[in-house]
Design goal:
heterodimer; A: mainly alpha; Cytochrome Bc1 Complex, Chain C; Cytochrome Bc1 Complex, Chain D, domain 2; two-stranded antiparallel ribbon; 22 helices; 62% helix; B: alpha+beta; Rieske Iron-sulfur Protein; 2 domains; four-stranded antiparallel sheet; 3 helices; 11 strands; 27% strand; elongated
Amino acid sequence: MRLIKSISDWLDERLQIGEVIKETAEHSVPRETASWFYVFGSAAFVVFMLQIVTGIMLAFIYVPSAGEAWNSLQTLNHQVALGWFIRALHGWGSDFMVAIVLIHMVQVFLFGAYKYPRELTWIVGVFFLIVTLGMAFTGQVLRFDQDAYWGLGIGASIASRVPVIGPLIVNLMLGGPIIAGATLSRFFALHVFVVPGLLIAFVSVHLLMVIKLGINEWPMPGRVVRKATYLKEYHELTKKDGIPFVPGAVWKDLFFGGFILLSIAACALYFGPFGPSGPPDPTIIQTAPRPDFFFLWLYAVLSFLPPSMETPALLIGPVVGILALLLLPFVFGEGEKSWRRRPVAVLTILFVAVVLGTFTRLAEHTPWSPVMDAWSGIPIPSEFLHHRTALERQGALVFQVKQCHNCHSLDNQGGKRGPTLDAVAVRLTPDQLIRQVIQGGGNMPAYGKNLSPAETTALVAFLETLHPPGQSPARDAARAITLGSDTAAPASGHP
Amino acid sequence: MTLPNALTRRALLMKLGILFNGFIALVLAVPIVRYLLSPISREKKGAYDAWVALGNLEQFPSGQTRLATYRNPVVNAWDGDTGDIPCWVRNVDGQNFQVFAINCAHLGCPVRWFPQSSLFMCPCHGGAYYQDGSRASGPPERGLFEYHYKIDGGKLLIKASEMPTPGQASNIVREIRPCV
C-alpha cells in the first residue's frame, strides 16, 4: 500500500493532475440527482469505451478490402478463437449505444435539462446522436455483405436526389462510379478514424460542460428557470442540499454501466454476431436487402411516401428534424423544467415513440414488399379449392403462375403488397374484377398483355369464389336491366 | 510592458507568423482537396465511355429477357465480386434489344424478372415494371434505367461504367415513361 502511495505521489508531483481529479470527482451535485434516472449518460460512455476496445480488436483481423472483407468476417466468426464473440459484442454494443443515447436524450428532454445554461450541452448532444447514427450506418457497411452492398445502393440513390450536386455526392460517397473497393476503404476510414474522432471530441466537450455547469437539478413543478436568477439558485441548491458526486451519486452509474455491459455480453453470447449475410456479389440478385434495426423505421417510411413526396421528404425531413432539435434550447431556454407542467413535451415524446415504433414494427414484416417466391413456394390453402369447378381451379392455377400470390394474400399467406383477396368477390363485381386485372391501377400493374382471354376468364371465375360462406358476391344491379337478363352466371366475356 | 494599442515588433512578427502559416495551409489545401475530389474528377476518363461486351447474341433468344453480367470497366484489383455487375437483356424481336440496369429506379435494389407475368419486381419496396422497363406500380417515379447498346461482331455491347441512380443517369439511353 505504501508503495502504491509513493508511486502515485511521484507521478502526481510531475503530472500535477491529482488535485483537479479530486475536485472534479467530489464536486457537489444536488442530492436528488443521485437518481437512477441520471445514469444513461454515463452508461452511453461505458458502451462507447466497449466499442473502442472491441473495434480495435476487430481491426486486428478485419481486412477492409472489397474482395476480402467478407472472408475475413467468416474467419473472425469461425476460425479465430472467440472472434465471433468480439464481433457480437461490437454489434450488440452498437445497438445498445444507439438505444441508450436515445433514452438519455428523452430523459434530458423530459427533465428540461436543455434549458439555460445547458443549451450548448444539448446541441453537442444532438451532434453526438447524429455521429452515433453515422457510426451505426458506416459500421453496417463494414460488415460488407449483401445487405451492406444494397444498403449502399439505397444510400446512393437517396443522395443522388439532392438537386444539381446529387450525382457528385454519389461519386464522392462511393469513391468512384460503382460500389466497390474504394467505397469500402472510405467507409473504413470514416468508421475507424473520422467519426470516432468526432465522437471523442463531442464526448469531451459534453462532459466538460456537464462538470463545469453542474448536472441538471431534479425538476420540481413550479421551480421556473430564469436566466437572471438561475445560476444563483443552482449554486445555492448545491450548497444547501448537495452531496459530492463521488461517492454520493457515482455508485448508481457504476452499477448501471456494469449492468449494461453484462446485458451486451449476454446478448452477444446468446444471439451471436450479426451476419454477415450473403457475400457482396451483385450478380446474386436473389436477395431482399434489409437495413439494421435502427434504420428499419426509415425503410418503412420510404415505402409509404407517395412518389412525388419522396425526394422532398428525404432531403428536407432530416434538415427540419435536426434544426428543430438544435433550436429547441433557444426557443424554450427558460420556464418550467418539470414534465408535469409540460404536457406538450410528454405528448411529443409519446408521439415520436409510437411513430418510430410502428414503422419499425411494420418494417419487420415489410407488408409492402412482394413475397418474391410466394407464387412457387406458398400453395393456395386447400379450403379455397374444395368443391370448385374445373374452370375455377384453372383460375387458381393462373393466380399462382402469374405471380398474383406475390402481392396478394389468401388466408394470410403470401404477399401483403396488394389487398388480401379472401373476400374480394364481395368488394368487386365480375366486370370490375376483369377491368382491375386487365387495366391494373390503384398501384397494381396491368395484366392485359400477359393474360389470354381464357386465362382472364378462369382467373376471374376463381376470384368470384372468394367470399365468406354467408355472403354472396357483389353484383351489378343495373346489369340485369341493361342486358335484359340475369347475370348470376360468372363473367364470361372480355371487355 | 507596452501600451495596449501599440504594435510592437514581437506582436507584428506573431501576426506575420500566423499569416505565413495560413498561406501554407492554403497552399497545402489545394492538393488535399484535389485528392479528396478525385472520385469526381475521374482520372480514368476513357473507361467511363467504354463499350462492354455482354456476350454473344445467341445467349439472348428472341422475345426473352435474360440476366447478363459484365465486369465494370472502372475497377481496381481488390474490388473482388463487386466489379461484376448484372443487368437484364431483353431481346425484343431478334433485331432490337433493351438492356436494363439491375437497380430499381426507386432506391437501387436489384429487380427480378418474372417471365410468367412479364414483370420486373423489386424486393425492397415493391416497385414493379413491365417487360419494356416502364413503370407498372409501386414507389418508383420512373421506369427502369436503360443502357445504350450496340451489336458488333455478333456480340452485344453496352455502354456502362456507373451505377445508375435516380439523380444520375448519364450513361442511360432514355427515361422510360409509363405507358398510359
